Amino acid sequence: MNSNLYKTQVDFISMKIDRQEASNLNWNNLVDHPTLRNRYTLVEKAGPNSKNFSLYVMSSGEITINLSIPYFLFGHNYHTVENEELQDFYIIIKKILGIDIKKSEVIELEYGGYYDSEISPEEFLKKILRMHNHDLIYSKSYMRMFEDKKQGICFKIYDAVENAKRKRTYTAERFTSEHIIKYEIKVKKPEKIFKSKLLFETLLGEPAQNSALVQLKKTLTKLKSQLVLPYEKKVEPVKYDLINIIYTAMKNIENHHPEHISIFKQLMDVIDESPLSSSQKSKRRKAIQYLEEQYEFSPF
Which one of 173, 199, 228 terminates a domain? Predict the structure, then answer.
């Protein structure tokens, strides 16, 4: 299976524009939201995909803009949104709203990418046992969502074709395969990744080793690797004496367990809590350490 992500993109974004820049807002292209106070949408003439846009006026005079950039630009999200597309988005928003969003603060954003699977997305999702350092917060046949509250990151894996059908953006010409999966991170605390406030102009920077887009891609790739899938290759005994046979069985249980467990740690805990003398504990720790090193090719 080719695990390289393609059509990587900044998807949803929420931006806060300061009061001074908000005063330049072109109200001619905005209309009141039908039910929510202080919320506005774009008039139809602003573009064919203007329904995806939402603007909120805060009591401070600042405004927030929420939208999915690929849906806004292309009417669907099966499309790359990197530097070039972000530049286009910046120009279009400035033309429609009359405001410069370069200095706007990015409050939240989603970054994702697609890959073609050899098995159905539903089958792939069923294989996921857990995700290291993340809690499962949503699970359906077509989607899994994990969260790290401390870092302010949600990680989503979902069936891209099913999602497109639900949002009525699916066409057979667009999706040439039924087995397309999307990985996506929702970054709720951008300062955790970027170590400071994230401005929209930072996303516009040319691709470089430490550019914002590269950092987002690295974060997505790193979190993707924290998904725990069944280890297809069984651990085989290094030797076939009783100790190695038992340790091999325990390592296979460890690799396939739905919860994260460490056989090595549990054995060390048993030794530490035992009534053995210090020298006896030391000998047994060394023996377990030696065993663990023999099986260090284990994936976890």
Answer: 228
pLDDT in tens, 241-273: 999 999 988 888 877 665 667 888 999 999 999
Do 155 and 290 lie in one domain? The reply is no
Q: What pLDDT sits at residue 296?
A: 66
Co-location of 110 and 209 in the same domain: yes
**pTM for this predicted structure:** 0.77
**205-230: per-residue pLDDT in tens?**
877 767 999 999 999 999 998 888 87
pLDDT of residue 3: 56
Residues 37, 95 share a domain: yes
Torsions phi, psi of 292, nearest 5?
-60, -40
Judgement on whether residues 190 and 266 belong to the same structural domain of the protein? no
Mean pLDDT of 168-177: 91
